[in-house]
Structures are given as structure tokens and as C-alpha cells.
DNA sequence: GACTGTGAAGCCATTCACAGCT
DNA sequence: AGCTGTGAATGGCTTCACAGTC
């Protein structure tokens, strides 16, 4: 059994390939080439083949890949053969939107607990969920076997919530607060920072990826 | 005047430094070293210095950086000296959350028009905005001088909306639909794909960044 | 002594080009 | 002939290490 390091960029693209394959499958496409996948998701054909090669040989030379098979392989690699219950901290506008976000469910993700410390939000119903006090998060995590946390609270409260999640053994956190969270190194954080994305855009609106010093 | 290519990762980090500096400034900190910035945002000190070096010499050897000055420099580089009006397509839960998203305003971004084709959503008020039909987007873009578009519509409608934005000369699009949009190459797209972020987490929950082939 | 700015080195990811298979 | 799988080459980003400055 050989173990090898996979670039994070490869994992990211694998997720994108996976959903693209799902779409092909829904459309009744049964076979696909690396070139067609590349075309569909905006990378090079060699990149697609190289990425897949980290995990095995899934194609047939001269033919391409079987869509259904490759879709299943990618989902298995991404660990999507089981559903993923998640705990959400923060029941503001963003938190509420996340609760109703369809794309989560389609891929097996489901927020099964929403928590907030704001008394005006506790008890609020969001679809089939009820906002609970933050201190009830530990027991829900345990009961539901939750392993992923989402932080959608104001910046000033984010670290405190992260600490609470860490204490309750969550090892994967999706963070929407625009701050670098301090966590043990066995805890993974993915930051979603919308202002950063916009600022990359505004930078490029001016410079197009190059910078001209003013002298 | 020399022109040089700046790595996108550098621009991303610059945005993060910029907000960190803003926080330091609010807290009354006047001077900071590359090591302190590095510590605060989770990168290496050399990385911070190298990133800044793309744009000039902002520090004092033996001393560090002046917080206020460096903050202003970063904001100027990121093109944040002007406010950025934005057009939002999609007034569902996500779109509504984006309209009220505080972190946008803090950095000079403001959604000034919300558009949707769903008759049940048109006319809905979101804070001081009213949802308008998509076909009114062109004139609002023109009137308000909008240069950035946000796509928060269902996947099936995303390409159509992107086409509309492109036709109306938007060159920067923030896309929340989990699909690769087809646009001319002078149009920049930043994708925010929450499922992808989660799937990177689930992958790592199993493999910790390495992959063990099953043989 | 402390910290910045930067060439050089090291490392990692992407692209190339072709052998191998159907 | 067509397309995959992959070592080799390339390109780009990060880290190192130290000269330069206060």
C-alpha cells in the first residue's frame, strides 16, 4: 500500500470534476475524455489526467472514461459515500441562507443544528430547524455524530466559537469570518472570505495581474 | 516605469494583510513587523516581506512598518480608494444574505441593485433595496457606473445571467453557482463554491492530504 | 540588535511529449 | 487512429540566508 501526498489544488479540482460528471450522468452521457472534462471545467486535459492519476487508473486508452464509474470513484475518494451532518454557529442572514442552501444537500451535506447566543434568534425556526443556544452544541455534536462545523458569526465572536468547536472534537471547520482562527494543527480550517475575493477582482480591474510602480 | 507580474496568491494575501492592519490600527497599534503580521494572519515572515516587495519598500530596517501608512498603501494597491457599487443577480436566501452582509460595506463594496426573474421576488424589499426584474439591470449598471456583478441564481440560470453581465460590459464577476461559466477572457470570474470547500475537508478527514491506494 | 529587502536555492505544481493500450 | 498514463521539462511560488539599514 503506497501513500502519496496529493496537492490541495488537485483535491479542489477533483471535487469540481465530480460535480461535472454528475451533470453529464444526469444528461445521459456515458463516456467522456479528459479533453471534454477539461473543456467543461476550464483546465487542461493533461491536468485532468494528472489529477486522476494520483488515485489510480480509471480510463481506457483510446476510449476515455466511463462517466458513471468515474463519478463513483471521485465521490468515494472525496469521502462522499456517507452523509455529512454539520453544526452551524450563527443564525444571522448568512447562517439562515446556509441552512436553506440546496447545493449542500445535493452532495450529502446537511446542517442538522443551528446555534446562536443572540436571545432574539434562539427559538427562531429555519425550515425544519430551530435555533438553539450555543451551549447546546456539544450535546448535539455528540448525538448526531457531527464532525464538521460552520462559523457564520460576527468576527469578534469567531475565535470563541472555534475554540468551542475544537473542544468538542470537530476537526474540520468552514469559516466565514474574515479572520485567521487559531486552532491546533490537527484541525482543518477552510476560510471563505468574500471581501478577499472581491478585492482580487478590484486589484485586477486596475492592473490586470501586473503592477506598474509609479515612477 | 517597470511592470511586473504579481502572483494571484500574493494579491489574496495582500487583502488579508490589509484587513489585519485595519484591525491593528483600530486597536491603536502604530508599528508592526513582518513577523507580527505573519503571526496574525498565519503565513511566514519572509512571505509577508516578499509579497510587499512586489509593490515597493514600505518598511524601515530595524524598525518595521508604520501601521497606518502600510494600511493605506495596501488599500491603494487593492484599488479600494473608491467605493464599489455592485449588481446582484438572484434574490433568494443567498442573495438576500449578501445584500445585508456587513463586511462588504466595511471595505467599500455595496450592492446597489438586486435583480431576479422570479415574479414572486420582484418588488420584495431587502433593507433599502427593491428587487427588480433582470431586464432592468442594464440601465442600472449604466446609471450607477457598476463594474462588478454577483451571481447568486440557481445553477441552470447562471450562464444566462453571466452572458447578460458580459453584454453590459461588466469585467469582474463573483459567481456562487457551482459551474464553470463561459466568458470572454477579458472578463474575470471568481468562483465561490461552498461544496468544493466542504469536499476538501471531507477528503482530508479521511486521508489527511495523503492518499493510500487500496492494494 | 533588530528588522527589512532580496538574490539564490529549493520545492511544488503544471505542461509537455510520447510510450502504451484498445 | 484515438486517448490514457506518466517521466521529464518547465515554470512559478515559497523559503532561506544574508547584506543593508536604522
Structural key phrases:
DNA-binding, Arc Repressor Mutant, subunit A, 44% helix, two-stranded antiparallel ribbon, alpha/beta, 215 residues, 9 helices, homodimer, Rossmann fold, 7-stranded mixed beta sheet
Query: Biggest sheet of chain A: strands side by side, in what order?
Result: 6-7-5-4-8-9-10
What's the multimeric state? homodimer
In CATH, the homologous superfamily of the largest domain in chain A goes by the name: NAD(P)-binding Rossmann-like Domain
User: Mean pLDDT across all residues of chain A, rounded?
Assistant: 95
Structural class of chain A: alpha/beta
Strand elements of chain A, count: 11
Question: Briefly, what CATH class of the largest domain in chain A?
Answer: Alpha Beta
What CATH calls the topology of the largest domain in chain A is Rossmann fold
Helix segment tally of chain A: 9
| Biggest interface, chains and residue tallies | A-B, 74 and 74 residues
Strand percentage of chain A lies at 15-25%
CATH architecture of the largest domain in chain A: 3-Layer(aba) Sandwich
CA distance, first residue to last residue of chain A: 58 Å
The major β-sheet of chain A equals: 7 strands, mixed
Summarize the helix and strand pattern of chain A as letters: EHEHHEHEHHEEEHEHEEHE
Low-confidence stretches of chain A: none
Number of domains of chain A: 2
> What is the CA-based Rg of chain A, rounded?
20 Å
Helix content of chain A: 40-55%
The gross shape of chain A turns out to be globular
Please characterize this protein's 3D structure.
- The structure is a homodimer of 215-residue chains.
- In chain A, the strands form two sheets. Chain A has a seven-stranded mixed beta sheet, with helices on both faces. A two-stranded antiparallel ribbon of chain A has the order 2-3.
- In chain A, helix 1 runs antiparallel to helix 4 and helix 2 crosses helix 3.
- With 215 residues, chain A is an alpha/beta fold.
- Chain A folds into two domains: 70 residues, Arc Repressor Mutant, subunit A (Orthogonal Bundle), CATH 1.10.10; 112 residues, 3-Layer(aba) Sandwich (Rossmann fold).
- Chains A and B meet through strand 1, helix 1, helix 5, helix 6 and helix 9 of A and strand 1, helix 1, helix 5, helix 6 and helix 9 of B.
- Strand 11 of chain A pairs antiparallel with strand 1 of chain B.
- Chain B binds a DNA duplex (22 and 22 nucleotides) through helix 3.
